[in-house]
Amino acid sequence: MKRPTSGRDVGARAAEALAWLKRRGTKKNRDGMARYAIVAPKAFGVSMSTIQQLGKRLGRDHELAGALWDTGWYEARMLAAFVDEPDKVTAAQMDRWARDFDNWAVCDHQCFHLFDRTPHAWRKIEQWSRRREEFVKRAAFALLASVALHDKTTSDAPFMRSLILIEAAASDERNFVKKGVSWALRGVGRRSRALNAASVDTARRLAHSADSTAARWIGRDALRELTSAAVRGRLARTTAR
Dihedral of the CA atoms 201, 115, 104, 148 (nearest 10)? Predict the structure, then answer.
């Protein structure tokens, strides 16, 4: 497959990429998706390593990413995260794509490989944390977890404030939301000793919640990791440098 040369034939290039993916789809991979609760109305069954291979061949192309997304195919949408240009992604695009999220894998993949690199990430974390749609709300916390892992320069302050959002959402009993909230809490708590202490305090309050089984699960899940010797030891070594 040749690298794109202009934006004039973006539809044709998207169709070519789609055909390439279709040829590599298998029932075994589709069955594997189902085992991991990845429900996609349109899926070929292509492995992630193969999708990433195509992304490297295509390179970055914002227009192509949009065309891939609009096909509605699971693999094309996963590919779009590898192809899009983070500095060209708009807040409106993020909202539009988030409304299309129909499974946890597409949601987490966009947050982890694309959205966390945009200048709109923090605003979307706050906005989406208050949304009702299951995968949009999950996206808020998948995005927070991704920023917590990848952003090496931001101070502790916005992450401290994010604990308020985490605590507010912890009573959501939906499986994919509560797992996203736990992921975010654990991600924030691994960044620094101060954030670890604050996250552990939050987790302990949640673990003793009288009103929500989801909050108790999130609190206990986060405490196991954030109070572990491995996390505490790594934070101590980081601070000592």
Answer: -20
